[in-house]
Batch of 4 targets.
Target 1
Amino acid sequence: MEIPRENGNSYEIDHDHHSSLIFLGTGCSSAVPNCMCLIQPSNPPCAVCSQSLSIPPELNPNYRCNTSLLIDYCNGDGEHKYILIDVGKTFREQVLRWFTHHKIPRVNSIILTHEHADAVLGLDDIRAIQPFSPTNDIAPTSIYLSQYAMESIEVKFPYLVQKKLKEGQEVRRVAQLEWKTIKEDCEETFVTSGLQFIPLPVMHGEDYVSLGFLFGEKSRVAYISDVSRFLPSTEHVISKSGAGQLDLLILDTLYRTLEAIKRICPKQALLVGMTHEFDHHKDNEFLAEWSRREGIPVQLAHDGLRVPIQL
């Protein structure tokens, strides 16, 4: 696996017979462009956000939806399973833009990192990618999340969690989901759509635990989208000096990112969660120099990027 080229959204490869990682979104909670930069532009205007007025999103790596990853897992029988990590506020836009571009026909299962708006507020739109049934008589999509996230979603989306209709309640079409709680523990693995995952609890602020995930046997991939501090047990699992070197680290840009990459020492890293303060081209020039100096290839990912990988 090589780090993606700067130009183009995917490698030239036969995706029908390979697994791949598709970056549906690489932006922060408010996404990019920042609306205030457009409705009350500064002088001079924000260089990153103003590009959205002149460059189509599919050609603009600085146009960023909420961070989300789609794992296109091709198993030993050549069958593809599609595993979605996080369903944020921009999910519908991501489906229209990138599911169609990459010919993604469905989602087999969903994993949630946490229950903040940028990770869950697209859950209602899951019904749009499920088979149509006016009576909701379809197989549910499995969705994996922590108990804390489950309790929050029961409040945010009671109609998606409700098991039975109340007496006299009319049937309305909603997303059909099968909720499966997982533990915030590196020792408690789970399997979905044929692929094993290890939860990676990290601090997202000092009073909140978010989950990353480690997956892949042929290539070890860690996905950590919301982190301010690594727990020692989690860092051990993903560090070269601990349980073994990662083939790919996908990491949030929120806090001391490059320091963490040096400690963890993956073979390569792609960054997500960027605000409008990150300019894709300029910051990747800086990261290219950093990569040469430190010996770890690192660059910003971008929406629509497809990375082939053996899992």
Target 2
Amino acid sequence: MLNEDSIEIRQENEIEALKAIFGDALEDLRDKVAWNLWLPLNVKIKLTPQQGSSGVHEVYATVELHIICSKQYPNDIPEILLENGKGMSKATLDELQIELQQEAHNLLGEVMIFELAQHTQSFLYRHNKPGFKSFYEEMLNRQKAEEQKLKQAKQLERDRERQVIFNEIEKRREILKSEFKLRRERFDSDQSDENYPGKNRKSSNSASSLDHEDSRCEHHGTQVIEFSNNGIREIQRGRCIGHLKEGQVTYYHGLDIETGELFAVGEWIINYKNADELQVCRQVTSIEQEMNYLIKLKHSHLVHYVNVKQQHVKDSNRVIVNILQEFVGCVLLSSIMNYPLKLKWCDTLPSEY
């Protein structure tokens, strides 16, 4: 009996507080009965968006919150109804209904009508937007939202492809830096070794890591390449010498058309698609600057880099970087590949070169 009296008192105290807060916006729907028989709460509150600190704003969204309580409320969850909603779609009202049900579960055991009303007002504030004047306007707005979503998806895809290209270029830059570091170490070592026999040239790390050309190689034919970055040279590119083990660089025989000098021509191909071409150009230019440092490095025991050229092939979405380097004409390429730490020297140039 004490528990029932407590529930009745709590409900009556709650209705008095709600009347003081909402005034005429609250309607008590309980029927008047004889003998002052007590009935559980059944109220409806007309709600508008919660007003911010900047004052009253135009009201576009409203709803009536109808709460029907049992005799065990607040120990039972009341029935929650949303009626006469304006300025919101059915899907939006369904979303509010779900949120109110969840809030009621969280507040079980406590009086909750005021909290549910506050939650509703906050929801109305977030969705207080002018409605569409016509079906055509609504269609245009929905189409605009879909276009924006598609644009964002394309931007994400471009960013992903740009990142892939950036990672590939960074990887190749690291390879170049490693080779530069190795050359510097060899240079310092040669300078400190006073008893070094002769002035034999050492092959570069990249040359020692070439895969031997076989019949499966598809690089055939000749091509004239004009290098102009460090003096103008026209190079007749010949057959393929070999490839780096990771397949990132292809080396060819090269012949200076004017002087007849032999060179090795390295070719890097960077493929890209739907990427920021300006970003790719910046990265390739950075690689070209790194190569310029190697071009300035000269020593009798090192293979010398001579020139570098970059070419953008827009039709196939790729960048070709050609590297012209000194050809070690007195070293058998097979000896380099089979015995990378031992160089075999000959008196004459092999006929195959």
Target 3
Amino acid sequence: MEARLATLESLSIYWDTNIDSIADDTEHESFKALIATKENVPKEHQYVLKLVSGTGRVKFNKQFGSGVPKFEASLLFDELSFTVDNEQYRDTVLMIDLFHSYLKKQKYKDLRPPSDMTPKTHPLEYFRFAGNAVLSEIHERNERWTWRRLKKRRDDRIAYINCYVNRKLDRATPDELEQLENLERELSFEDLRFYRSLAKPKLRREKARLAAIEKKRKKEEAERKASQGWSISSWWSGSSSATGKGQPSGEADDDLVITEEQKQKFYDVIDYDADKATIAASVDLPKGVIWPP
């Protein structure tokens, strides 16, 4: 077990609601002066987490498991205080409201009049903007249930799934890659996530199918090599001699792979009974006797 001593000094979080901008300070001296230390504690900060100082002892257990943790820490703080005043709460709500307003305006950014137009100087333009914003939502909602939109969405889904699967399998054509890139630019994030969730099961099935085809191909290739390197003499004598091409016996044995099914088919063709052959080999008959009779 090893132990280490850790020291924490002047950790704080503050949110100042009334402070001047320091953007013009290129040397960052003003920013450095705002950092609280043990010797320098700025009074103008509105702290959310007041300054925290303390020590900690960390143990490292070399032998750890389900009942023994790898790290053990004992922390001692002088004070741990969180505060939120009314001004900070007000600014937090205002910031959330501004983000909500920005996201709402972003939807109608293309319909909004130019920035040099204001509601006072161009009231008619802003009245048209308000009307077009409402009509755009109505048109979008109605467009979702038209046959043309449904057919296009179906075609995009099928095309995206096929192109995505082919790209993952490294068999996509240049046209499919270009179509996939265009669809990813056109479709929304929600549609892409949904279509990929539909493509993953198909990708797994396709990989399993290709693996089965490859396994079958290797098996057929092994059987073909075995049938080419097979000879009748090797069945009867069990000889491991080289083939007619002058290959060594070890290489011939490696290429000769005969399944039990193929062996039985050959026995049926030549009317050979392996059980009788085994019995005949075990019986010591006089020379010149033909068995079976």
Target 4
Amino acid sequence: MIKYFSILALVLAFNAGNALAFWCFQCTTFNSTNCLQPDVNILVTECPPSPNVSEVTCFTRIVGQDVERGCATELTPTERDNCNVVNNCQLCANENTTACNSNLFPIGRLHCHQCTGTTNSTCSEEIDGEPSPCLRFVADDQCVVQVRDDTVVRGCLSENEACRNNRDCHVCSGNGCNFRHFEYNAAGNVIVQIPLLIGAILLSAFLSK
């Protein structure tokens, strides 16, 4: 009997030793902006083998407004069972030694033009390039253009909450909608002020009679 258990222990140890380890990106955008679309090997970690995780190897999920990536072995059985797109979570399986959880997540997250410069810089001109994904994930996020003094800032509302109720900002909805020359926004403010200016002129003329 003792010999039987000894052989069984050796078999189990052999199988455990031959369980293949795998690689996943392990990071969060809370600490690293590179985690949004990781392509840096320093963010890759070797995950410990687990007999309970065979179909999937890595995960990507939203925690708060941040993207978190890691090894499926880090998740509890309940977390793995509930990991689906509806819950802003995604599991994947490595087909080779390449980490499978590097994709932009979730699919369809907002892209905005993002830059900072003076009113004489290229950031103030109409943007022709491709917009970039917003770092924070907010379901109803929007793009913004902020013009204050001689500074122009383009980006995502989720990263510039001061623009939510600020006349220095133009807020718009849709990927890359904040591409226009900043003077379009300035012109909008001028148009709003024209009726007040005309009223002041008429009132001044009336009082001078």
